[in-house]
Fold this protein.
Amino acid sequence: MLFLNHVTRNNSTCQNNEGGQQTVLRNSSTSYGLVAILMHWTMALVIFAMFALGLWMVELNYYDNWYHDAPYIHKAIGMLLLFLLIFRFGWRLTNTRPQLMGEAWEKFIALLVHRSHYLLLFAITITGYLIPTAEGVGIDLFGWFTVPASFSFTKEQADLIGLIHLYVAWAVIGLAAAHAGAALKHHFIDRDNTLLRMLGINKKN
């Protein structure tokens, strides 16, 4: 893939403070590393795919071929997404973050959007866990292992949490659209490296 080649070429020549070779995996003050880039685009694709799958599967009736399989896939991928999100959050806390570009107000909004996105992503994956486990049945992850059902608050848990899950899903998509719009604004209007860095391309302004 093109952006992976750019990541390798751009980051492999970066030097750290000790003068040693900086790994391609980690971020620097000017560029994102391979791990951050892969997690960003993988989660973006999965989130939009899960949103589409969720909207589609709730319209299925009992006699549809995917009536059981679609929710099974949705739940399993949702749990994998939660695990990836935990790893990504930990990676974010232990890595340098490339400096934000733009005016002070743009940087403030960017930080607010990033933090809100993490909050919403944790909310959607956790509520996604609480819906099918309301009756004490764990979530099978493609036969690899089962995530146990650990929490049950009320008899109406599945319906209540399901409604929250739906609203949070729309909020995630809305925030993602705003995030994408801001990235395109940086690229086409401001003409800075904001979008390019997340593609593994680090051009000089």
